[in-house]
């Protein structure tokens, strides 16, 4: 059974960019919510299909769902598309986002990064979490 650490995220965008940076080239992100205006399906390698580890978090009502491989090109585009106010965080259009490397769910941020619904796998290096804490991206992290 996977083990996770709870994350209390202060900066949703910064947290995603940090995770994308260290898992670039070996991970896939999923996004779920009202994605219609983001045009994520245009990104190279994007898919509307769930995978073994990246699955819909909300079944009713069915929300838009897309997966995107994380690489330098998609990171650049994701930063452009997700940086606007009202996309990430409280009441944002992206309700759930996850990051996986193979079958390992590295980051799960559900319910608009709600503190009770955001976790990182214990496979995520603790020094990386400490760095995020020192840069103000996280308020704190703890064992789930």
How does this model look, in words?
- With 144 residues, this protein is α+β, with helices and mostly antiparallel strands.
- The chain has one domain (4-138).
- It has helices at residues 12-23, 72-82, 126-134; strands spanning 4-9, 27-33, 64-70, 94-101, 104-109, 118-121, 138-143.
- The chain has a seven-stranded antiparallel beta sheet, with helices on one face.
Jot down its keywords.
3 helices; alpha+beta; seven-stranded antiparallel sheet; globular
Write a brief structural summary.
By secondary structure, the protein is of the alpha+beta class. It has three helices and seven strands, in the order E-H-E-E-H-E-E-E-H-E.
**Tally of DSSP β-strands:** 7
Q: Are there runs of 5+ residues with pLDDT below 50, and where?
A: none
**Spatial strand order of the main sheet:** 3-2-4-5-6-1-7
Total number of helices: 3
Biggest β-sheet description: 7 strands, antiparallel
Q: Strand-and-helix sequence, N→C?
A: EHEEHEEEHE
- Based on CA atoms alone, the radius of gyration comes out at 14 Å
Please give the alpha-carbon distance between the first and last residues.
13 Å
Q: State the domain count.
A: 1
Provide the residue-averaged pLDDT.
95
Helix content: 10-25%
Shape estimate: globular
What share of residues are in beta strands? 25-35%
Structural category: alpha+beta
Give the secondary structure arrangement, pairings included.
Blueprint lengths: L3 E6 L2 H12 L3 E7 L30 E7 L1 H11 L11 E8 L2 E6 L8 E4 L4 H9 L3 E6 L1
Antiparallel strand pairs: 1-6, 1-7, 2-3, 2-4, 4-5, 5-6
């Amino acid at each position: 059974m996977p083990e996770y650490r709870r994350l209390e995220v202060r900066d949703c965008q910064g947290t995603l960019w940090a995770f994308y940076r260290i898992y670039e080239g070996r991970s896939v992100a999923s996004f779920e919510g009202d994605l219609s205006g983001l045009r994520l399906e245009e990104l190279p390698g994007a898919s509307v299909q769930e995978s073994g580890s990246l699955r819909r978090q909300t079944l009713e009502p069915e929300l838009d769902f897309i997966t995107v491989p994380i690489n330098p090109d998609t990171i650049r585009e994701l930063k452009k598309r997700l940086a606007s106010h009202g996309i990430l965080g409280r009441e944002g259009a992206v309700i759930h986002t996850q990051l996986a490397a193979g079958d390992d769910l590295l980051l799960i941020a559900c319910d608009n990064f709600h503190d009770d619904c955001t976790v990182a796998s214990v496979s995520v290096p603790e020094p990386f979490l400490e760095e995020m804490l020192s840069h103000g991206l996280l308020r704190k992290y703890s064992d789930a």
